[in-house]
């Protein structure tokens, strides 16, 4: 019998890897310098930094986090500011489209309504 904590850990690791895919594809699309382990590391570090910022600063949070995230992408992937912004935008688009596709597929398979 497999321990429930092992299953939870495997699910968390799989979700973390899946969450890094849109960033990796976006950086590769705009000719940034990366490999998948580096993208995983940047995803983890940027998540920590954004969490710390959200704990410390309560006002203009969205704008501050966006600027910090663009700066991280610029520095980590050797991109210009415009390409870093485009990477962030493409990452958002990929996440949105994949979320809609997953919602549609799971709705069809599980007979769940998409919009309640």
Q: What is the total domain count?
A: 1
Q: Give the helices and strands as they follow along the chain.
A: HHHH
Shape: globular
How helix-rich are the residues, as a percent range?
Answer: over 70%
Arithmetic mean of pLDDT: 88
Distance between the termini: 37 Å
The largest sheet, given as strand count, sense and whether it forms a barrel, is: none
Radius of gyration: 17 Å
Number of strands: 0
Measured by DSSP, the beta-strand proportion falls in under 5%
Helical segment tally? 4
How would you explain this protein's 3D organization?
- The chain is mostly helical and about 120 residues long.
- It has one domain (about 5-110).
- It is built from 4 helices and no strands.
- The chain has helices spanning about 5-30, 35-55, 60-75, 80-110.
- It is globular.
- The chain starts with a helix and ends in a 6-residue tail after the last helix.
- The model has no long low-confidence stretch (mean pLDDT about 90).
């Amino acid at each position: 019998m497999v321990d429930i904590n092992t299953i939870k850990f495997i699910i968390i690791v799989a979700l973390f890897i899946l969450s890094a895919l849109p960033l990796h594809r976006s950086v590769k699309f705009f000719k940034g310098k990366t490999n998948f382990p580096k993208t995983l590391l940047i995803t983890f570090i940027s998540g920590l930094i954004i969490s710390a910022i959200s704990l410390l600063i309560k006002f203009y949070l969205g704008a501050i986090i966006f600027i910090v995230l663009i700066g991280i992408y610029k520095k980590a992937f050797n991109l210009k500011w415009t390409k870093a912004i485009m990477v962030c935008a493409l990452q958002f688009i990929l996440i949105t489209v994949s979320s809609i596709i997953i919602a549609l597929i799971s709705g069809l398979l599980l007979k769940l309504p998409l919009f309640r």
